[in-house]
Amino acid sequence: MSRFNKGKKEMPELNTSSLPDLIFSVLFFFMMVTTMREVTYLVKFDRPSGTQLEKLARKSCTSFIYIGRPSTDALRSQYGNQTKIQLNDAIVTDASEVYDFVMRDRNTLAEIDKPFYTVSIKADHETPMGYITDVKQQLRKGYALKMVYSATKSDKN
Amino acid sequence: MGKKRKMPGLNTSSTADISFMLLIFFLVTTSMDTDQGLARTLPKPPEDEDAKNEMKVKERNILNIRINKDNYLMIGDDYVGLDEVKPRAKEFIANPNNNANLPELKPKKCGILGTRMVTLNHVISVQTDRGTSYGVYFQVQDQLVAAYNELRDELAKQEFGYKYEFLTKEEKEAIRDVYPQKISEAEPKQYGKNM
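^ inputs. structure came back:
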């Protein structure tokens, strides 16, 4: 039986040489399917839910407008508890700044992408329509005519 | 000299750790949420602030949905609930019985479906008060899109035997010609005050 017991057999070490490749491929997957987080949210928005939603086609050609109440106590003491509009990383007090915002944002796009410029409105479902209307009027003024009412998918049909 | 030294292999055992750190960095800083929503096209701004060239639309061709500041819904002259929006909209868009109060049917060339009688000039207008909550407005919009989608699905099944989403580009175009989505995004009026 000496043939089977040639000394004490050591457990062979696991070959980990392909582990970096594995992790790298996971990394590349995530780099491709995700996008950089655009901004930190200064307003709290609980989007309405709908059943007939479409996916946003070109995220790179999209600007986001956030509408809701300030999210933290510090912001509330600064801006009050009323509904506010957030553009990029700042809360603006007047809807007319949306006009400058879309003009500036659209100009950063390449010329061929400009027709696809879309504005996505992420607004809280309790927002009074007045704010939405003001924003929409500014978008019209700036000829940013493609827009999306951002929402979450609801399960019930 | 002369003796060729064998190059020692580079120790790569930490590459895994490095790539792990990169991976975690990307997981933290990126977000995967695909944005979804209802896409709309706004009308062009009026050329002149004063001269409001309001489009002349016949009374029967327009479906007025109003939402007041207390989130009550009106279609035409009736108070309705949210669940009535879709059937009312479907009836309005299709006008299957050629009702005189619903939009007029006009012949139109619809791609491979040939010439059909469709409600060419119908418009659905949703008007809100400044105090209406966005959630309710959105639900109404959602129901209207649902009405269009259901009509398109029904027609697609009837003509081609498949649901709308499985059709070819040409067939989809024809169906869209029969039921074009016409939801007006026109500016609101301050009507809610005297309701």
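The beta strands of chain A are 35-36, 43-44, 49-50, 54-55, 62-70, 84-87, 90-92, 118-123, 146-150, 152-153. The radius of gyration of chain A is 25 Å.
thumbs up if we can close this ticket
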